[in-house]
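Shall we go through a protein fold together, starting from nothing but its sequence? Please make up or recall a protein chain and show it to me in full. Go ahead whenever you are ready, and we will take it from there.
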Amino acid sequence: VTGASLENRATALIVDDRVGIGTDTPTGNLHIKPATGNVYLKLESDNTSADVQLILDSANSTRNAHVTFYNAGIQKGGVGYASSDAIMKMWGGNNPADDHLCITSAGKVGIGTNAPSEKLEVVGKMLVGADSTISPNHADSSIAVEGTGDNTIIGLQTSDGYRGEWVLAKTLNDYVAGMAAGDSMLASHDTRALHLGDYNSIFVTISDSAGSGKVGIGTTAPAWDLTLYKSGGTLGVVGAGSPRIDVMNTGGSKGLRIEKSADAYSTLTNYDGGAGASLTLQGASAGGNVGIGT
């Protein structure tokens, strides 16, 4: 009925370009406002071969087609098509232009962006866990992960089941024997070797359990507990004062010590807890002499 008025006060139905159910002052084309109880809008089909649809169809590409949500007359959010970005969105507040959650026609999801380049793209910080805020210690973090149990674990797994993990032990219930509260560990799961490198090369390898955890620099098959393999490779120990290398027994009381003194001397010492016998090499600028026991 258009341009006319049909009233039935018993059911509170008003037709004059607008329909009111439960109200005689409809503010929309269809306004449902029962005096008591909840409000339901139900679309039902008894045809088992038919779908049920609610269609929102705007006139052209410059108009929105969305559902908005209000509380006590104040808009709190919405979901639908936003013509300003030509994309499906979900937003909080009253502005469809906000890029709170966007879904492209290709199925890519953007949070904080209306042009996600991957299946999920987040612009801004992300917190995963039970805490409601990012710890001040992680204020500059792009992603903060906080667990709810004894340990926080980030797992990376390939399609064939191989896994690597970043493990943070939060309590004394160690994830791995020997890890104390607050310790971190980068681990390769299922006794696989752990490699560090870039897209082109492997720089450091920690062998699997069969290799007893040997560390290789420049090699993926370290033969010794620490293996440096590189043509022309060097091992540098640099520090203020008197940097040194010790090869000691378990108690650290006996062994071989290589030390660079603060002056122009270097010493090679058979260390036994005391001074020990030593071979002293004098720098070229100081004469280049060699001393044994002196």
In short: The chain is about 0% helix and 40% strand.
